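Encode chain A's predicted structure.
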Amino acid sequence: MQSASDRHEYPAHWEADVVLRDGGTARIRPITVDDAERLVSFYEQVSDESKYYRFFAPYPRLSDKDVHRFTHHDFVDRVGLAATVGGEFIATVRYDRIGADGMAASAPADEAEVAFLVQDAHQGRGVASALLEHIAAVARERDIRRFAAEVLPANNKMIKVFTDAGYTQKRSFEDGVVRLEFGLEPTERSVAVQRAREQRAEAHSVGRLLAPGSVAVVGTGRSPGGVGRSVLGNLREAGFTGRLYAVNKAFPEDLKELDGVPAHRSVRDIAAPVDLAVVAVPAEQVPEAVIECGEHGVQGLVVLSAGYAESGPDGRERQRELVRHARAYGMRIIGPNAFGVINTSPEVRLNASLAPEMPRPGRIGLFAQSGAIGIALLSRLHRRGGGVTGVTGVSTFVSSGNRADVSGNDVLQYWYDDPDTDVALMYLESIGNPRKFTRLARRTAAAKPLVVVQGAGSAPQGHAVRATRLPHATVSALLRQAGVIRVDTITELVDAGLLLARQPLPTGPRVAILGNSESLGLLTYDACLSEGLRPLPPLDLTTEASAQDFHAALARALADETCDAVVVTAIPAIGERSPGDAALAEALRSAAAAAPAKPVLVVHVELGGLAMALSAATSTAPRAEAAPRARTDGPDDAQPVPTAVAAPEGTHLIPAYPAAERAVRALAEAVKYAQWRREAADAGKVPEYEDIDEKGAAELIGGLLARGQGLTLGTDETCELLGRYGIRTRRAMPAPTPDEAARAAAALGYPVALKATAPHLRHRADLGGVRLDVADEEQLRRSYAELTELFGRPEEIRPVVQAMAPRGVDTVVRAVIDPAAGAVLSFGLAGAASQLLGDMAHRLVPVTDREATSLIRSIRTAPLLFGWRGSTPVDTAALEELLLRVSRLVDDHPEVVAVTLEPVVVAPHGLSVLGASVRLAPPPARDDLGPRTLPTY
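Encoded structure for chain A:
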């Protein structure tokens, strides 16, 4: 029976699924009194050496007293966590709070001893590192600030777990034992270590799904047709290099092969290991298939079956159960309701999807959520793959369906260091964790282009997403700041992807235009201006231009230091000197090859034959006979699949576009992305301010939150909290009567402002609820009478008196904690610009000095801050510092869920915060800064 101190509520929020170093999964949860048998069984499977390292002596078995001690916890001073696979323990960790004398203690003691034990069969999988992250988070939640661990010198693996974690440590050696002490506050190094481990683990987990050594198709039909039989056929036709198995419990017992593939009634009957199972059975049969796969040691599942969250509440619960069962066995899932996965690598050749043909091999990674979008992407790239000097194909393709487990974030982790992927294209109907996606996108975009179409409407029914209070345009802007190339349609997605996969990034916005059509050149020129590029005057080669003329003109343009990119326009020409398709292709290729540092694009009109014939100049794809042309409607049909031959090594493929606007839009995105890459190389820093009292602010916030779960602070409390971060506000003194107003004005000193602060009048000077530059008491009383006569009784309009601030530009600064995107800092001009026109700029917190500088320059009305039409420029340096201080406040204290400073009057020298509000709420138990954990939907 548990003692009184053992009866604390079970902390269910400590439960988490994690990805281990090898890509498998485990579940971490608190150890309870019901785990006695599991603990004993776990201990029996640990080697004598590991037991010796744990207890510093031979310890063959646990006594009843040990079992009781290791399973009875109060979840405050004594905590134990277990990592489980298949419901059984594979590792444990515990801490016991201790005092200065090293004996058991309670709060306020802030140190604890920590100890691990990992089954030998699971050592080297990163289990202890994951457990350390989670037990450290638990300890911080329980106000423990330091861990101490005693380790035998020979136990190098455990010493490495502690030393590699990145925490600030102190190490000593006494009585033959190494004693390690380390603080638990995250450091820059510990966060970097954690995220590097997260990337390796999640990338490996996706890699196991995309490059399996063996695949079983569960639900292969006995007769042709059907989903399972189609997938098996697609795997065979693609030439999958591993072992294939057909599985169906309805197979006759004497059936040994199906289409030349070994046939089995159950995955359990397969004698060899199975890396990936493609599940294509009705939803009600999926749980049985998952159990069979889990018990056989299958590493991952692609679930094509429908009937889950997309079908309603009952289906959503089936989906949750599916994920729970799969993760319990250490498996990851793509799906359910997925279209499948493709890997064109010659070493794999995996087509575990419903796509009847294998895409051409190439350097573009594709991700989509729905099957319909996946089909459209593959089809569009198949048609558009041909260019002036070759074709472009796919490296890997993932359609995640309901993305109940593996999501776009996981695939980004894989693509980040995938040597076969140069460009990532993603169609995201929803983003489950925008905060993490933005972080991963920023890192990925620094290495390779990431082009995204983001759904603008509500999430599909099968997708569970965190609700966001931010407008769609704001989320899009935040993605762009993370280096994401945001486009609106599949056509734009493919247009930008082909350019980025084939050509170098432009070094600037200057564009040379040349071709054999004056009107098409002018159309391209106008398109460049519309997209913010700087086009040079078009060069018209006339319709009589030969291939040599195109070559010479392109060579001159590429050699011109005043241009950063070249757009070649071409129309069909008739005449003796008009170039043939192949000749023009070779002319452009050879000229571009001589100056490979600048991008070249071709705009052609009704030149389907050109695209086909010119593609024969160079290519890196297999011959087109292996990939017949797909018929679809639309302008892309003018570009059939080209015949392909080997391209010279290092050749850049030149993309071709059927419209000038599409080519220029793709180029403009490349220009903006290249600029982001240059700026990202020096992102700036988050400055330190000596007058910030972080500890004092934390104590104040803790005391205020003790009053309730969430509250909007009063004026005095708001001023005090902001003051801890060096943000001074001009106090507004209540004036419920004319006499009170007079006394307040006397205390503040004339001139003053008299304001009505009722919600319908606040920040609405245009309604007449503000009187400025009130010079004396007589004028004050007259103004007071006017306000009450116009708007109502004092208790209705809530008048206040405030000292006058120097004249300047009225601005607004806001920070909000969004459930999906995280902490966001926003800036704009107060009044109509921000409220009516939505002219606000946004940055993710924490904001660096460079980001603060760009933030105030990002709004359309920014010229008003910099001396527009002869006005005096205001103190933008003071404004940048204010933004940085607000960012620090929100970043340091997640309990601060909303800050509004309005108006902030920015004068030529200094600024004045005239209005401020702060809202507090308890921080979330877990966020993207916490220990690694898989999402649960």
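Residues 188-210 form the longest helix (23 residues).
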